[in-house]
Amino acid sequence: MSKRRVDDDSDIDVSSTDESDVETGSKEEEMEEVVNVDFDYFDLNSKVDFHATKTFLRQLFGDDATQFDISGLADLILEGNSPGSTIKTEGEESDPFALLSVINLNENLTKPSVKNLIDYILQKTKSQLEFNMILSKLLSPEKTTKDQSKRLKVGLIVSERMINMPVEVVPPMYKMLAEEMEKSEDAHEKYEFDYFLVISKIYKLVNSNVDEEEDAQKSKKKKTSEKDATEEFDYFHYEDIILEDNAKYHGHYSYTNQQQETDSRRVFTEYGIDPRLSLILLDKKGFMKSIPEMEEKFPPF
What we know:
Order of helices and strands: HEHHEEHHEHHEHHEHEEH
Oligomer: single chain
Organism: Clavispora lusitaniae (Candida lusitaniae)
Distance between the termini: 32 Å
Mean pLDDT: 82
Number of strands: 8
Strand content: 15-25%
GO biological process, one term: protein export from nucleus
Number of domains: 1
Largest sheet: 8 strands, mixed
Structural class: alpha+beta
Family: Belongs to the BCP1 family.
GO cellular component, one term: nucleus
Pfam families: BCCIP (PF13862)
């Protein structure tokens, strides 16, 4: 019930106003509905999931998506019996709300879609010399161990979902992925990875250009330190916090193309959003350690 101040000489009937408020509040509560949604997990389906997978890849690569062979990468993700899963709400034939899979990078080094992606990753990590050198060795066609009969294998984790999907749906997907890789018929040849490379994205909160222009009219001089103090980073995928904690290397990078102004991505906030590429490299131990930690931090509803 709302409280109002009413003057003594007012002709408003307080009792009737309060009753009206109660009735209005009651009606508003009745109008509020709780929608229960069942999330079902499905195997990857090349006949149904191809276009949705392409959409997820474009979303994952952000402003640089046009640099990649999206169809070629989608084919690799959905090729027969690939480990991974999707989340759907209206049966197997419906569009997925989330996707998680893995691509064997070393097995596909000569494919144009993968070669282009690797060149992009190596270009982005140039500012981190050690990270870049490790990736160059791991993603080289040459043998990467002292034992020249063995080459270390790297799995590319592809994880994307609709923006409003809760993070709690993710731990079961990672757990199932690990189990599928272990139980696959060709597990030793294809899915016994030594390292996992996760491509993801974060965003930086930046001062709105509109606000800065308004402030500039009041004060032409602005200290850089004050501007930087308002900048913050946050995650699109909160499971990345755990993956980064267990990673050998990770980094955040600006996209090559800037197709949208930060203010155009501003929704219900005083800051603009500046998306960044995120790359996370884990060894097998770190990857497996992350899964139970995800389950603990993001338990089912």
